[in-house]
Amino acid sequence: MPELPETETIARDLDREVRGARIDAVHITKPDVLREVTPAELARRAVGAAIERCWRRAKLVVLDLSTADRLVIQPRFTGAVLIDTGSLPERELRYSTLHLDLSDGRRLHYRDIRRLGTVALMRPERWAAYSASLGVEPLDPAFTAAHLSGLLRGSRQAVKKVLMDQRRLVGVGNIYANEALWRARVHPAREARSLSHDEVDRLRDAVVSVLTESIAARGTSFRDYRDALGERGTFVEHLAAYGRAGQPCARCGTPLTGTHEIDGRSTVVCENCQG
Q1: CATH number, domain 145-269, options 3.30.300.30, 1.10.8.50, 1.10.555.10, 3.40.50.720
Q2: Mean pLDDT across the chain, nearest whole number?
Q3: Which of 2, 5, 75, 138 is flagged as catalytic?
Q4: What confidence tens digit (pLDDT) does each residue in 21-69 have?
Q5: Catalytic residue among 45, 56, 57, 59
Q6: The pLDDT of residue 170
Q7: Nearest residue to 53 via CA among 36, 41, 39, 70
Q8: What is the number of H-type helices and E-type strands within the chain?
Q9: Residue 223: pLDDT above 80?
Q10: CATH for the 4-132 domain, from 3.20.190.10, 3.30.420.10, 3.30.390.50, 3.40.50.300
Q11: Catalytic: which of 3, 17, 179, 199?
Q12: Mutual orientation of helices 145-152 and 197-216 as an angle, nearest 10°?
């Protein structure tokens, strides 16, 4: 968390709000979030650059700079990229790890409560190599049922683990893996290779639909996730599996079961619908 819908929402907000702004200064208060660049090097390479584009790759928020560098932010569990017009609450400023002073007087903060996320500055060749190590985008037309079948075929791993493997399929974390498998009526512990053609078709459609719907709701907020404007996502109101262990299945009424046995993460399943 944040997963694909949350980072997509942040990236769209940033692209709309700060594209074209110049970076006038870089302030780093918690340098342990930096990767592949020192504080001094980040300031040297970023100051004076314009933000040409903000977009998402996998669970990353990417800022393309006019220098050809890319500022790559991985929020992980409690990270957020927040636009500050001077009214950002103290509770958010308290956990700011770095901020960029923009030419229009605003600031762009990377806030991270637990500091498990990262901020990297990558040159084009480094970004190309890094991006190539990541899997297919689930909202790309290339992500077809046939492509998903190829990812699952031959794997003895639980299908939920395969869905969350960023080297195969990007952007799907624990929340949306639970939701997609519930929608597709597939048990999370099933061997990936055991799925039938019909089940793969349903699972592909479920992955795409749950991600698309969550983006429309601006993501899922429990505690820490905020969009770039500091607002909460509302998809939590539409979750059918994740976080609902012990509650009745919305489809059949059977109490949902919660377990940590599959991958050490919280897994919620309807043993009747997904059995």
Answers
A1: 1.10.8.50
A2: 96
A3: 2
A4: 999 999 999 999 999 999 999 999 999 999 999 999 999 999 999 999 9
A5: 59
A6: 98
A7: 70
A8: 8, 11
A9: no
A10: 3.20.190.10
A11: 3
A12: 110
